TrEMBL record:
Protein name in the entry: Cysteine biosynthesis protein CysZ
Subcellular location: Membrane
The organism of origin for this protein: Qipengyuania algicida
Pfam families recorded: EI24
Transmembrane segments: 20-43, 49-75, 125-152, 185-212
Keyword Hydrolase: no
């Protein structure tokens, strides 16, 4: 794990990964720009309905405040979702540099990729349904709820990061997961912690996908250079 993370950090300057970061940042900012415009018009329209003549100015202020609050609360979630959309490009960049033979493998067919996405969605829903009552019961502890959701995210992220690499190279449905459960959980836990640190949270999915690529190929081919 430490070596995989170190190699992932060392490759952050790779042009292919920089392109992914720039694309994901631009898409994230564009989404928030659209969201901010919607808030502005909605606020102006609402205030106009109750304070004719003041809607434009007050709406602009209210829309700005709401946009700042939404950005503070949602930026990490939106950025993570956008970046995950480009995660396959990160995997390909790592394979091209460190595992050239693996880089020749074609991506998943659309139906298999769709099936994997639906399974991931179901897994996320089930895990959250299971842990939510526990998290609510632990609200009085102050830290218990965050801990429960953190552990759930560690499990889900570890599995998702492994799948985005492994499913590209799995030979049959009978193939077992190349990364053990504890390793997956540790990787997911590291990424989960990184996601709550400002600025680093934007790099967390990139480092997670790159580290998962190293871990998967190292387990599949122990003699692979690392």
């Amino acid at each position: 794990m430490p070596r995989a993370l170190a190699l992932s950090l060392a490759q952050l300057g790779d042009p292919a990964i920089v392109r992914v970061l720039l694309k994901s940042l631009l898409v994230t900012l564009a989404l928030f720009g659209v969201f901010g415009a919607v808030l502005w018009f909605a606020a102006a329209h609402t205030i106009n309905a109750y304070a004719a003549g003041y809607g434009t100015g007050l709406g602009a202020v209210l829309g700005l405040v709401l946009m700042i609050l939404a950005g503070w609360l949602l930026f990490r979630v939106v950025a993570l979702a956008v970046l995950q959309f480009f995660a396959d490009e990160i995997v390909q960049a790592v394979e091209a540099r460190h595992y050239p033979a693996a880089a020749q493998v074609a991506g998943l067919p659309f139906m298999r990729e769709l099936g994997a996405s639906l399974r991931a969605l179901m897994r996320t829903l089930i895990v959250n349904l299971v842990v939510t009552p526990i998290a609510l019961a632990l609200l009085v502890t102050g830290i218990g709820t965050a801990l429960v959701y953190g552990l759930a995210n560690a499990f889900l992220l570890g599995r998702e990061l492994m799948d985005m690499v492994w499913l590209r190279h799995r030979r049959s449905d009978a193939d077992t997961a190349p990364i053990g459960g504890l390793t997956r959980f540790a990787l997911g836990g590291i990424v989960t912690v990184m996601l709550v640190v400002p600025f680093i949270n934007f790099l967390a999915p990139v480092l997670g996908a790159a580290a998962a690529t190293h871990l998967v190929h190292r387990q599949r081919s122990p003699d692979a250079p690392l």
